[in-house]
């Protein structure tokens, strides 16, 4: 088998199969391989007319089909299966060849794999790919990390299959060394969790407080999606809410069990944020909300707890409340992205990646799950001020969240008064208020820590660390 394929894909489940088809549809010769040869044959048999595929039955045939430098995309489950595939193929490759992991790998695994393959003369690229199965086929957002030199041969191929932003720019770029790509994809998914939670809370409030039906909320969301909340998630949420279950004739959302699942990337985002000391409270609340939804026994045991019982608002008041919810949703969404970009900056500094935050925002403008119209403004904000510490330090975003704060506070207060859980809105507002507060109770916390554990504290009037001898004359030591 001669080396004619410009790229290869091994692992032909839905994402791998669609990615291979995307390459072929864009004029590339694609080698395809799967542990089960029948899946390879099925792909070529069903979609062979879309482009040029080279079906390989063995690892040796697959590698032989690739032109040099070989570019091999691994699309298998994260963790052990990915390591197993790498170990199978690495001995067959030569220095300069590129192995690309397109799965949702933990960035620390990617860093390890990059070191190990670099020692063998191979390039390893951890590429975050967002957009789901539809994006993989029609154009995803791609976040490749790894050696910069590997992008010289890989980048032009990825640019052909990536989603295109409204200005025509491919939503792919080299993010940074070793695990940078998978780290950015992890945070992308964390923001996705928060975004979905906030939209869910808006739905819950409109339904239980305003008294809107799912169909009317769908209409409301469609209207919002024509303005500053324009995003893929708002678009598909309206579709879900407008859908009627064929079996029962009831709103689809009413026949779905209210237990949300997760695959781990949102949880990783929160865990790594804790390691980095970065507050991502909005993302954390979204992760915990999914977790709580799955504890059926806990919820059942608590169902009889007392709470407020109020009738839905009258029409005029409901309409005014809906306007407030739109403002609260937008402001909270800004906070989610603020926290996510703060985490990317912190990770970049901790690992020496040099991630360009404006470029990251550009990658997310199309193809990915969190694509939204205001990402172009985020890109512009970071391009104008690369040193921007927070999105809330950008004048326009600061003005918008400030203008929304009265409605935001009213929505949170209404949710509390009426007993509707809104942890995402509440956490976002608390974050906003903590940032703007001239003093935080952390001063008291440090005093407590010094009292029971002699942990010391810093003073506002002079430099150094100090400890008070709590007892007797309570004298102070340190300097």
Please write out the topology.
Layout: E1 7-10, H1 14-25, E2 29-33, H2 37-47, E3 52-55, H3 59-64, E4 71-74, H4 80-89, E5 98-101, H5 107-118, E6 123-130, H6 132-138, E7 141-144, H7 150-161, H8 180-208, H9 214-224, H10 232-242, H11 252-255, H12 265-276, H13 281-293, H14 296-301, H15 315-351, H16 357-363, H17 375-384, H18 395-418, H19 423-436, H20 442-453, E8 457-458, E9 465-468, E10 476-478
Parallel strand pairs: 1-2, 1-4, 2-3, 4-5, 5-6
Antiparallel strand pairs: 6-7, 8-9, 9-10
Helix pairs in contact: 1-6, 8-12, 8-13, 8-15, 9-10, 12-13, 13-19, 15-18, 15-19, 16-17
| Poorly predicted residue ranges | none
Overall spatial form: globular
- Helix-strand pattern: EHEHEHEHEHEHEHHHHHHHHHHHHHHEEE
Instruction: Report strand %.
Output: 5-15%
Radius of gyration: 25 Å
How many distinct helices?
Answer: 20
State the total count of DSSP E strands. Answer: 10
* Overall pLDDT confidence: 96
Main β sheet profile:
7 strands, mixed
Which strand order do you get reading across the main beta sheet? 3-2-1-4-5-6-7
Helix % is 40-55%
Report how far the terminal alpha carbons are from each other: 74 Å
């Amino acid at each position: 088998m001669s080396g004619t394929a410009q790229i290869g894909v091994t692992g032909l489940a839905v994402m791998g199969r669609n990615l291979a088809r995307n390459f072929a549809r864009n004029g590339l010769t694609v080698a395809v391989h799967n542990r089960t040869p029948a899946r390879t044959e099925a792909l070529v048999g069903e979609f062979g007319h879309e482009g040029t595929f080279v079906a390989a039955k063995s690892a040796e045939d697959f590698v032989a089909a690739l032109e040099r430098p070989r570019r091999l995309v691994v699309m298998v489950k994260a963790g052990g299966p990915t390591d197993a595939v790498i170990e199978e193929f690495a001995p067959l490759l030569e220095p300069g060849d590129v192995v690309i992991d397109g799965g949702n790998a933990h960035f620390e695994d990617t860093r390890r794999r990059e070191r190990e393959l670099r020692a063998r003369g191979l390039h390893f690229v951890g590429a975050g790919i967002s957009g789901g199965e539809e994006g993989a086929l029609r154009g995803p957002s791609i976040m490749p990390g790894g050696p910069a030199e590997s992008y010289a041969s890989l980048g032009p191929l990825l640019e052909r299959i990536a989603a295109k932003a409204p200005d025509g720019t491919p939503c792919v770029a080299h993010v940074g060394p070793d695990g940078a790509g998978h780290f950015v994809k992890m945070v992308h998914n964390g923001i996705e969790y928060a975004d979905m939670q906030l939209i869910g809370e808006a739905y819950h409030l409109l339904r239980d407080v305003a008294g809107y039906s799912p169909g009317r909320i769908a209409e409301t969301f469609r209207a919002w999606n024509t303005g500053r909340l324009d995003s893929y998630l708002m678009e598909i949420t309206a579709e879900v809410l407008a859908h009627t279950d064929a079996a029962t004739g009831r709103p689809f959302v009413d026949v779905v069990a209210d237990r949300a699942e997760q695959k781990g990337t949102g949880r990783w985002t929160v865990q790594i944020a804790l390691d980095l000391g970065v507050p991502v409270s909005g993302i954390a609340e979204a992760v915990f909300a999914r977790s709580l939804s799955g504890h059926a026994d806990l919820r059942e045991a608590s169902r009889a707890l007392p709470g407020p019982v109020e009738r839905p608002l009258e029409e005029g008041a409901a309409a005014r409340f809906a306007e407030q919810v739109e403002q609260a949703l937008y402001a909270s969404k800004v906070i989610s992205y603020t926290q996510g970009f703060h985490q990317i900056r912190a990770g970049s500094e901790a690992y020496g990646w040099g991630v360009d935050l404006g470029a990251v925002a550009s990658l997310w403008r199309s193809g990915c799950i969190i694509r939204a119209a205001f990402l172009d403004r985020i890109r512009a904000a970071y391009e104008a001020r690369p040193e921007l510490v927070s999105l809330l330090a950008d004048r326009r975003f600061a003005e918008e969240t400030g203008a929304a704060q009265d409605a935001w506070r009213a929505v949170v207060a209404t949710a509390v008064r009426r007993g509707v859980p809104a942890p995402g809105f509440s956490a976002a507002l608390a974050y906003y208020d903590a940032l703007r507060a001239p003093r935080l109770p952390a001063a008291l916390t440090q005093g407590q820590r010094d009292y029971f554990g002699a942990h010391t504290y810093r003073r506002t009037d002079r430099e150094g660390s100090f400890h008070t001898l709590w007892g007797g004359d309570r004298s102070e030591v340190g300097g």
